[in-house]
């Protein structure tokens, strides 16, 4: 099954090239390269969920780089990383609020998942690409403690 998200990124890359949008061209071509590498690793065409994982990882890398650059006093480079993360974020599914994630965690606890590992194991597939994993970990800890 071909990924419709991958096709959308390819079409947007072609449009960015035609309009000479350097930022979008760079970001989308890099994203497509990452997707292709994932397909090679997996041995076939990947679905939209796997594409979302690739994009989420790329956004996380850019946000981490941005934080490091700001800490080093390189605000202009951090702004570039933030802009790239923003472009990639357009391709992720709509985000979840902290209240939605908290409600999901509470429902998993009510279903009997009372330990960190199994609870995170059930939660992450449900929120992947829609909510930050570190924040989800914090919410799980708070709910298990409370």
Quickly describe the structure.
With 146 residues, this protein is an all-alpha fold. The chain has helices at 4-18, 22-42, 48-71, 75-89, 98-110, 116-127, 133-145.
Salient structural properties:
single chain, 146 residues, mainly alpha, Hypothetical Protein Yqey, Chain: A, domain1, 2 domains, 7 helices, 77% helix, globular
- Count of distinct structural domains: 2
The secondary-structure class comes to mainly alpha
Distance between the termini: 44 Å
Q: Over all CA atoms, what is the radius of gyration?
A: 18 Å
- CATH fold description of the largest domain: Hypothetical Protein Yqey, Chain: A, domain1
CATH C-level label of the largest domain: Mainly Alpha
For CATH, the homologous superfamily of the largest domain is named as: Uncharacterised protein YqeY/AIM41, N-terminal domain
Mean pLDDT: 90
What is the annotated CATH architecture of the largest domain?
Answer: Orthogonal Bundle
Broad shape: globular
Which stretches are poorly predicted, pLDDT < 50 over at least 5 residues? none
Main sheet characteristics: none
Number of alpha- plus pi-helical segments = 7
Instruction: Indicate the percent of residues in helices.
Output: over 70%
How much of the sequence is in beta strands? Answer: under 5%
Order of helices and strands: HHHHHHH
**How many beta-strand elements?**
0
């Amino acid at each position: 099954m071909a990924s419709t998200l991958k096709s959308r990124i390819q079409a947007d890359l072609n449009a960015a090239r035609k309009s000479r949008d350097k930022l979008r061209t760079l970001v989308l071509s890099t994203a497509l390269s990452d997707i292709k590498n994932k397909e090679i690793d997996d041995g076939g065409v990947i679905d939209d969920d796997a594409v979302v994982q690739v994009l989420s990882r790329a956004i996380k890398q850019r946000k981490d780089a941005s934080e490091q650059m700001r800490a080093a006093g390189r605000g202009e480079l951090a702004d570039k990383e933030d802009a790239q993360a923003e472009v990639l974020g357009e391709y992720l599914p709509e985000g979840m609020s902290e209240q939605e994630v908290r409600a999901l965690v509470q429902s998993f606890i009510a279903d009997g998942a009372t330990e960190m590992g199994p609870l995170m194991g059930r939660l992450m597939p449900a929120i992947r690409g829609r909510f930050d994993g570190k924040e989800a970990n914090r919410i799980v800890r708070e709910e298990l403690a409370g």
